[in-house]
Design brief:
Shape: elongated
Strand order of the largest sheet: 2-1-6-5-4-3
Number of domains: 1
Order of helices and strands: HHHEEHEEEEH
CATH architecture: Roll
Number of strands: 6
Radius of gyration: 18 Å
Helix content: 25-40%
Protein backbone atom coordinates (compact mmCIF):
# COMPACT_ATOMS: atom_id res chain seq x y z
CA UNK A 1 0.00 0.00 0.00
CA UNK A 2 1.24 3.46 -0.87
CA UNK A 3 2.53 5.57 2.00
CA UNK A 4 1.10 8.71 0.39
CA UNK A 5 -2.57 9.29 1.13
CA UNK A 6 -4.44 12.16 -0.48
CA UNK A 7 -6.53 14.31 1.85
CA UNK A 8 -10.09 13.45 0.84
CA UNK A 9 -11.71 16.83 1.28
CA UNK A 10 -13.12 19.05 -1.45
CA UNK A 11 -9.90 21.00 -1.85
CA UNK A 12 -7.80 17.83 -2.02
CA UNK A 13 -10.09 16.39 -4.69
CA UNK A 14 -10.26 19.64 -6.70
CA UNK A 15 -13.99 20.09 -6.07
CA UNK A 16 -15.25 23.67 -6.01
CA UNK A 17 -18.61 25.01 -4.96
CA UNK A 18 -21.21 25.02 -7.70
CA UNK A 19 -24.06 27.33 -8.46
CA UNK A 20 -26.15 28.22 -5.39
CA UNK A 21 -29.01 25.93 -4.41
CA UNK A 22 -31.61 28.61 -3.92
CA UNK A 23 -34.53 29.84 -5.96
CA UNK A 24 -33.79 33.00 -7.87
CA UNK A 25 -35.86 36.09 -7.23
CA UNK A 26 -36.31 36.73 -10.95
CA UNK A 27 -39.09 35.88 -13.33
CA UNK A 28 -40.21 32.75 -15.12
CA UNK A 29 -36.97 32.27 -17.12
CA UNK A 30 -34.88 32.31 -13.95
CA UNK A 31 -37.30 29.83 -12.40
CA UNK A 32 -36.92 27.59 -15.46
CA UNK A 33 -33.13 27.74 -15.03
CA UNK A 34 -33.51 26.78 -11.34
CA UNK A 35 -35.69 23.81 -12.27
CA UNK A 36 -33.23 22.78 -15.00
CA UNK A 37 -30.39 22.69 -12.45
CA UNK A 38 -32.47 20.37 -10.26
CA UNK A 39 -33.24 18.18 -13.27
CA UNK A 40 -29.54 18.11 -14.15
CA UNK A 41 -28.73 16.97 -10.62
CA UNK A 42 -31.27 14.16 -10.95
CA UNK A 43 -29.85 13.20 -14.35
CA UNK A 44 -26.37 12.94 -12.80
CA UNK A 45 -27.74 10.78 -9.95
CA UNK A 46 -29.35 8.45 -12.49
CA UNK A 47 -26.16 8.39 -14.56
CA UNK A 48 -24.05 7.25 -11.62
CA UNK A 49 -26.60 4.69 -10.46
CA UNK A 50 -26.68 3.31 -14.03
CA UNK A 51 -22.88 3.09 -13.89
CA UNK A 52 -22.96 0.84 -10.80
CA UNK A 53 -25.76 -1.32 -12.22
CA UNK A 54 -23.98 -1.75 -15.56
CA UNK A 55 -20.70 -2.68 -13.88
CA UNK A 56 -22.24 -5.34 -11.63
CA UNK A 57 -24.18 -6.85 -14.54
CA UNK A 58 -21.30 -6.52 -17.05
CA UNK A 59 -23.68 -4.59 -19.31
CA UNK A 60 -20.84 -3.20 -21.42
CA UNK A 61 -22.98 -1.89 -24.25
CA UNK A 62 -25.01 0.38 -21.97
CA UNK A 63 -21.96 1.18 -19.82
CA UNK A 64 -20.18 2.63 -22.86
CA UNK A 65 -23.02 5.15 -23.35
CA UNK A 66 -22.31 6.69 -19.93
CA UNK A 67 -18.78 7.95 -20.65
CA UNK A 68 -17.20 10.75 -22.58
CA UNK A 69 -14.98 9.38 -25.37
CA UNK A 70 -11.82 10.57 -23.54
CA UNK A 71 -12.85 9.58 -20.00
CA UNK A 72 -10.04 9.57 -17.44
CA UNK A 73 -10.16 6.80 -14.81
CA UNK A 74 -7.92 6.70 -11.74
CA UNK A 75 -8.68 4.32 -8.87
CA UNK A 76 -6.44 3.78 -5.84
CA UNK A 77 -7.04 0.73 -3.68
CA UNK A 78 -5.20 -1.01 -0.89
CA UNK A 79 -2.76 -2.81 -3.18
CA UNK A 80 -3.57 -1.47 -6.65
CA UNK A 81 -3.67 1.68 -8.70
CA UNK A 82 -5.74 1.63 -11.88
CA UNK A 83 -5.17 4.40 -14.45
CA UNK A 84 -6.99 4.29 -17.79
CA UNK A 85 -7.64 6.82 -20.54
CA UNK A 86 -10.52 6.58 -22.96
CA UNK A 87 -13.92 4.95 -23.00
CA UNK A 88 -12.95 1.80 -24.88
CA UNK A 89 -9.99 1.03 -22.62
CA UNK A 90 -12.17 1.34 -19.53
CA UNK A 91 -15.08 -0.67 -20.90
CA UNK A 92 -12.70 -3.45 -22.05
CA UNK A 93 -11.15 -3.50 -18.57
CA UNK A 94 -14.55 -3.82 -16.91
CA UNK A 95 -15.45 -6.63 -19.31
CA UNK A 96 -12.33 -8.55 -18.30
CA UNK A 97 -12.86 -7.94 -14.58
CA UNK A 98 -16.57 -8.77 -14.40
CA UNK A 99 -16.42 -12.23 -15.94
CA UNK A 100 -18.40 -15.39 -15.36
CA UNK A 101 -16.05 -16.03 -12.41
CA UNK A 102 -16.91 -12.84 -10.53
CA UNK A 103 -19.66 -11.43 -8.37
CA UNK A 104 -19.80 -7.69 -7.85
CA UNK A 105 -21.87 -5.55 -5.52
CA UNK A 106 -21.19 -1.80 -5.77
CA UNK A 107 -23.37 0.88 -4.20
CA UNK A 108 -22.86 4.63 -4.49
CA UNK A 109 -24.39 6.71 -1.72
CA UNK A 110 -24.67 10.26 -0.44
CA UNK A 111 -24.08 12.25 -3.63
CA UNK A 112 -22.71 15.76 -3.27
CA UNK A 113 -23.45 17.19 -6.72
CA UNK A 114 -22.14 20.59 -7.76
CA UNK A 115 -23.52 22.13 -10.95
CA UNK A 116 -20.78 24.43 -12.23
CA UNK A 117 -22.45 25.60 -15.45
CA UNK A 118 -25.06 24.43 -17.95
CA UNK A 119 -22.59 21.83 -19.24
CA UNK A 120 -20.21 21.06 -16.34
CA UNK A 121 -20.69 19.42 -12.95
CA UNK A 122 -18.84 17.47 -10.28
CA UNK A 123 -19.93 15.01 -7.62
CA UNK A 124 -18.56 13.14 -4.64
CA UNK A 125 -19.98 9.66 -3.91
CA UNK A 126 -19.48 7.24 -1.04
CA UNK A 127 -18.88 3.70 -2.34
CA UNK A 128 -19.52 0.47 -0.43
CA UNK A 129 -18.61 -2.68 -2.32
CA UNK A 130 -18.00 -6.42 -2.28
CA UNK A 131 -16.20 -8.33 -5.02
CA UNK A 132 -15.58 -12.05 -5.33
CA UNK A 133 -13.27 -13.61 -7.91
CA UNK A 134 -14.52 -17.18 -7.67
CA UNK A 135 -11.82 -19.02 -9.61
CA UNK A 136 -9.13 -17.44 -7.38
CA UNK A 137 -11.08 -17.74 -4.11
CA UNK A 138 -10.54 -14.01 -3.58
CA UNK A 139 -12.87 -11.60 -1.79
CA UNK A 140 -12.50 -7.82 -1.46
CA UNK A 141 -14.75 -5.51 0.52
CA UNK A 142 -14.47 -1.92 1.64
CA UNK A 143 -15.44 1.67 1.06
CA UNK A 144 -14.07 4.45 -1.09
CA UNK A 145 -14.71 8.06 -1.94
CA UNK A 146 -15.43 8.65 -5.64
CA UNK A 147 -15.11 12.08 -7.18
CA UNK A 148 -16.29 12.62 -10.72
CA UNK A 149 -16.43 15.32 -13.35
CA UNK A 150 -19.34 15.40 -15.78
CA UNK A 151 -19.92 17.12 -19.08
CA UNK A 152 -23.23 17.67 -20.86
CA UNK A 153 -23.11 17.02 -24.60
CA UNK A 154 -26.12 17.01 -26.92
CA UNK A 155 -28.45 17.27 -23.91
CA UNK A 156 -26.94 14.24 -22.06
CA UNK A 157 -24.66 14.16 -19.04
CA UNK A 158 -21.56 11.97 -19.43
CA UNK A 159 -18.80 10.94 -17.04
CA UNK A 160 -15.68 12.85 -18.09
CA UNK A 161 -13.43 11.83 -15.16
CA UNK A 162 -13.93 9.27 -12.43
CA UNK A 163 -11.57 8.71 -9.52
CA UNK A 164 -11.68 6.98 -6.18
CA UNK A 165 -9.49 6.30 -3.22
CA UNK A 166 -10.19 3.62 -0.67
CA UNK A 167 -11.05 4.54 2.89
CA UNK A 168 -10.55 0.92 3.85
CA UNK A 169 -10.15 -2.36 2.00
CA UNK A 170 -10.20 -5.92 3.29
CA UNK A 171 -8.87 -8.74 1.11
CA UNK A 172 -9.34 -12.40 1.95
CA UNK A 173 -8.30 -15.59 0.19
CA UNK A 174 -10.07 -18.93 0.28
CA UNK A 175 -13.56 -17.47 -0.08
CA UNK A 176 -15.91 -19.96 -1.71
CA UNK A 177 -19.45 -18.61 -1.38
CA UNK A 178 -22.32 -20.97 -2.10
CA UNK A 179 -24.29 -18.98 -4.63
CA UNK A 180 -28.00 -19.66 -5.04
CA UNK A 181 -28.00 -17.18 -7.93
CA UNK A 182 -25.11 -15.98 -10.09
CA UNK A 183 -26.05 -13.53 -12.82
CA UNK A 184 -22.53 -13.08 -14.19
CA UNK A 185 -22.15 -16.85 -14.29
CA UNK A 186 -24.67 -16.73 -17.14
CA UNK A 187 -23.96 -13.28 -18.62
CA UNK A 188 -20.32 -12.47 -17.84
CA UNK A 189 -17.52 -13.05 -20.36
CA UNK A 190 -15.44 -16.19 -20.10
CA UNK A 191 -12.75 -15.67 -17.40
CA UNK A 192 -9.21 -15.39 -18.81
CA UNK A 193 -7.49 -17.41 -16.07
Amino acid sequence: MSEYRRVLNKAGMGIQDGLPLQASSGGIEELRADIQRLMDMEAIRQLKHSYFRCIDTANLEELATLFHEDVLVHFVGGNYEWKLQGKQEYVDSIGASFSNQSVGHHNGHQPEIQILSKTEATAIWYLADNMWILNHGAFTTGTAIYWDRYIKEDGRWLIRETRYERLYEINRQGEKPELASHYLGAHGAQAQL
